[in-house]
Structures are given as C-alpha cells and as structure tokens.
Amino acid sequence: MPVQDLILQRFPETFPDFQPIDDDPVFNPAVHLALGQPERRYSLAELGYESSQLTEPTPSAVAATDCFQVLSDEGVSALYHVCKQLEAYTTSNPRIARNTRGGVYRSRFIRDLSVSPEVTEHLSALIDSPLLPHAMGHQLAHLNYQPLTLGENVDKWHYDTLQVDYVMFVTDPNAVDGGEFQYFLGTRDEMAELHKAGKKIPADRVVAPPIPGAGYAVLMQGNYVVHQACGLQSEGERITFVNGYSFTNPAIEDFTAVKQLRMADPAEIVNAEYARQMAYRSAQHLQACINTPNYTDTDATVEQLQRARNELDVAIKTLQDSEDEALKHFGD
Ligand SMILES: [Fe+2]
Q: How remote is the CA of residue 188 from the centroid of ligand 1, in Å?
C-alpha cells in the first residue's frame, strides 16, 4: 500500500487469538443468498413509541418486519455446517444458556456473510435507511443454540445492545416443538412496568411471526423492539444467527451498551472492538474534512471536527469507566 493512501477496513485485519474452524466453506453470494421481501413491517408508532420516547436518535420509522428469506438451501446447509463446528465454543450469560459469539474470527464464511454488501443493501431498503455491518466483531453473527434443559427459554425478554439486527433461523423452526421468536407489541417502558409489577404479558401483545423454514429472518431496531426466543418443548435442535448493523449516517448517535457487552464477552475484547466502532465513526466525520474541504465556511468545518472529537470523548469516557453493570432483561 502506498504510504500516502489511507485505507480504513470495515472488518479488522488482526483478530483476537481464536482458533479457526477446521472446515470452512467459501461464501458465495450468488449461490448462498436468496433475498426476499417481508409481507409486513411494524412501525415504531404501532409499538407505541411517540417521538418523545425515542431516546436514542433513529432515522427509521420501521420497528420490525415479519419474515423474509435470506439464504438459499445451499446457504442454509453451508451455514449449518459452520454453526455445528462453532457449537464447541458456546458460552453462557445471565440471559442466554448457550451462545457462540465472535464466530467471525473463527470462520471466514460467517465473516463474509455478516458483512455481505448484498445483504446490507437489502436490509437498508427494508428499514428505509442505509446501514453498515457493525464494526464490532462480537456484534456480528451471534449464534444462539437451544439450552440443554428442555423448556428453558433460549433468550429472555430483552432489547438489544445495538441499533439494528436480524434474527435468522439456521435450523427449521417447523421441525421442532416450540422455539418461537416473539416480539412484544409495546415499548421498553411498558415491558419494564409489566415486569416490575410481576404481571403476565397479555397474549394479544405478543407476536410470533410465522417462519416458513431455515434461512428466513426478521429484521428489527433491536434497541427498541422488546423480544424473546422461546425454549423447545421436546427434544430438537434450534440454532439462530443474529447479525448487527449500525445506521450509516454518523449524525445518528451510536448506541452500543458497552457495559452490557462486558457481561457477555471478555472486557479487553469488548473494549478493543468498541474503540474501533467509535474510531470508525470519528473517521466518518473527518472524511469530509479531509477529502472535500469546505473553503468557504469555517464554522461548518469546526462542527465536523467537533463531531469527530465528540465520538472520541464518548469512547474514552466509556473505556475509562470499568464499573460493572448487571445484564438487563425482563425475565421469562
Ligand atoms: Fe436480541
């Protein structure tokens, strides 16, 4: 690389010390993808969010979609093959009994699927706003596996630690008893109130989008849509793939719940990945200043620099605060 060129990588060139899987298929979007459309989208307003309740800025009015196809049959079988190898690396946290995170550092297939421009463009259209694959490796390709205890929920009611994600079934949800993915038709605050009062969630406020098979996904603004993954009611296999995105526009503030992530992943890795996320955002602000200098408006230039600095100030403050925070959820 000529020294005068500055090149930023969407995915890093150095990885944590993770053992790669043995048999890693080559991701081929022409073969493995079969992108389809959802029938329905739910808006944030339908969930009860008024604009005053949107505490984290969002450029999209879409809360969630029902299911749409992502992978072809070949894509499903290649991903399943990778997921079975990554099952050796599951960890537990107070929300999820068995998940594998950081698979992008172990499998090139999963990495290429996670950052696929074809998928990213498709999802951007579904959510009416340009997206970028998340800059934090552990926010990509999160894998959930059914708990070893029958009936135990795969994941409790919660909202996510990022802006946008999709949840895709790697196994056929119709081949098992239970294991539904569910949305709460309400806001985070309403769910918190129900949980605090020990009340049952009214059945008419829970939606389980029908999923026709493996390779189908639902997309959502994960930090606003409260959701859960139910347990299996009889022996079977349930694997889901959850991939994270950020809104491309750096004027939309970052939403990364770093302290929550430190409860699920090694702190040093979370910190390195988060620094990357914020450095990338800072670079997005600086790009205009570097590539297209404004020769007539110094105030606008100062604003660009301030935005770039603000990302770094937020990141430094967050990284210097090592206090723990319990993993949040709304129970079963
Ligand atoms: Fe989630």
A: 13
